[in-house]
Amino acid sequence: MSMKPKAAATTIRVSVATRDRIARIARQEGRSMTEVLNEAIHDYERKHFWEELNDQIERTQREDPESWAAYVAERETLVGPRSRSHRIAPEWEGLITFPEEKDEGNAR
Q1: How far apart are the C-alpha atoms of 26 and 24, rounded to whole Å?
Q2: CA dist., res. 62 & res. 68, Å (int)
Q3: The pLDDT of residue 99
Q4: Within 10 Å of residue 36's Cβ, how many Cβ atoms?
Q5: Residues whose CB is less than 8 angstroms from the CB of residue 35 and which lie 6 or more positions away in sequence, other chains included
Q6: In the chain, which stretches have pLDDT less than 70?
Q7: What are the tens digits of pLDDT across the range 7-18?
Q8: CA-to-CA distance for 44 and 53, rounded, in angstroms?
Q9: Of the candidates 50, 72, 48, the residue with the CA atom closest to the CA atom of residue 60
Q10: Interaxial angle between packed helices 16-29 and 33-63, expressed in degrees from 0 to 180 and rounded to the nearest 10
Q11: How far is Cα 52 from Cα 45, in angstroms, rounded to an integer?
């Protein structure tokens, strides 16, 4: 039977209210406070990653629309056009007109 080495630990200062909130969540979920904090940090990092990626995409669309259009065209060549079924539930297919479809209808 191998024993997992215990991770090094340290102390951080948080308000009593924050400590109590973490303890309450840990108790409710039957987990340690460290597990609750680790999950919260992981979720924060993931949220931050996606926010930063979305900001970069929006910046590229705004500042370099030609490069963005080239990227979209190349992506569609490789994986095909975006499926509408990924945007909405299949049972709603055909019942909703998206803004770009309205624009296409006006261009014809």
Answers
A1: 5
A2: 9
A3: 65
A4: 19
A5: 26
A6: 1-4, 82-94, 96, 98-108
A7: 788 999 999 999
A8: 14
A9: 72
A10: 100
A11: 10
